[in-house]
Design brief:
Pfam families: Glyco_transf_4, Glycos_transf_1. This protein is α/β, with parallel strands linked by helices. It has 15 helices and 13 strands.
Length: 375
């Protein structure tokens, strides 16, 4: 196959699910006939800066978030498109999809596609549904990271489900290099006898980290050596969490690490992984925790139920039921054998979500798009 160019469009290039997928695709496709570029709308971010320094083509538009009518970012994206001359423009989530479509309107040389990494939730969901309908009319193919997203798309009038393909996220399943677990625990202020509950994710309201803090308040009397480690960059939402910790008096039980680049090592010092999000696609953090051999207790939302089979490779709970969350975590704290059983099955599940599998599916995805035009 002749060399082809794909321009990925993302809103920002920090450490988060969609961004990690794009980063991994850049690495995975480096030795293939597909040449991948990235166009970042808003925040070049940590990953974007690193990838640019490594020589990967990352284009930054410096969008100031003036709204969807920002003509400046459209003009700058068109310049990038004229420079790169991509065969395919691949947008990730709705805002990049909108700008990618608007910037290529009338340009016949590029095919459009998108990956939807999550569900439509919260305020403004109906507006996004309208946008999905409009944008989908000009998309050659649409990838979704969880089968359950298809169910939601089926409720959108006129959405072309025949163009939708499920491509789950992939992860690196290799274990980290040897490191001193005791020193890592000491670095975080953990003692040898602590039972460590950990979570990894973005510090946004939809991640519902408040529920995990309330969990600690409910369990601290029965389990005084229980600790919660929250691995997430401290955005503005951190003040809400900090105030809740203070009001519940669990300052000694909750540790906020901030942004960390040693997540694979941190996972090895956890005894249990939790996630209480209101919405998830196919969570990379969850998959990485399962690959690390951790028992997991996660909210039964979005794609979590596609990954976790309740009682087999993890536990699911109702995100609006704190009592259920407390009960399930308490059961696992008290039952080491059960934790080991769940962890063994969790690791087996994670191995099916490989980077190589994701690469193969996206190659086929692109080839299908080009094939529709006889290329």
């Amino acid at each position: 196959m002749n060399s082809r160019k794909v321009l990925h469009v993302i809103e920002r290039f920090n450490v988060a699910g969609a961004e990690i997928v794009v980063r991994d695709l850049l690495h995975l496709f480096a030795e293939t006939p597909w040449q991948l570029h990235v166009c970042v709308l808003h925040d070049k971010g940590i990953i974007g800066t690193e990838m640019f320094e490594k020589g990967f083509p990352v284009h930054h538009l410096d969008w100031t978030k003036d709204g969807l009518d920002d003509a400046g970012v459209v003009s700058r994206m068109r310049k990038v498109i004229d420079e790169v001359q991509p065969d395919i423009i691949h947008a990730h989530n709705v805002t990049p999809w909108y700008f990618a479509t608007r910037s290529t309107w009338g340009k016949g040389q590029s095919r459009r596609c998108a990956t939807l990494h999550g569900f439509l939730t919260g305020e403004g969901a109906w507006k996004k549904k309208c946008l999905y309908t409009l944008l989908s009319r000009t998309a050659e193919r649409i990838a979704i990271v969880s089968p359950r997203i298809r169910e939601q798309l089926s409720t959108i009038p006129l959405f072309p489900l025949q163009r939708v393909e499920v491509i789950p996220n992939g992860i690196q399943t290799a274990e980290p290099a040897d490191f001193d677990i005791s020193s890592k625990k000491e670095e975080l202020g953990l003692d040898k006898g602590d039972f460590v509950i950990g979570t990894v994710g973005r510090m946004f309201a939809e991640k519902n980290i408040e529920m995990q803090i309330r969990l600690m308040a409910r369990l601290r009397d029965d389990y005084p050596r229980l600790k919660l480690v929250v691995v997430a960059k401290k955005y503005d939402y951190f003040k809400v969490l900090e105030d809740l910790v203070d009001s519940l008096g669990v300052q000694d039980q909750v540790i906020f690490t901030g942004l960390r680049r040693d997540v694979p090592e941190l996972l090895r010092i956890f005894d249990l992984f939790v996630m209480s999000s209101f919405s998830e696609g196919t969570s990379i953090a969850l998959l990485e925790a399962m690959a690390a051999g951790l028992p997991v207790v996660v909210s039964d939302v979005g794609g979590n139920g596609d990954v976790v089979r309740h009682g087999e490779n993890g536990l699911l709970f109702d995100v609006h039921n704190l009592d259920q969350f407390v009960e399930q975590v308490g059961v696992l704290i008290n039952d080491e054998k059960r934790r080991r059983q769940l962890a063994t099955e969790a690791r087996k599940t994670a191995e099916t979500y490989s980077l190589e599998s994701m690469k193969v599916k996206y190659q086929s995805f692109y080839q299908t798009i080009m094939g529709r035009h006889g290329n």
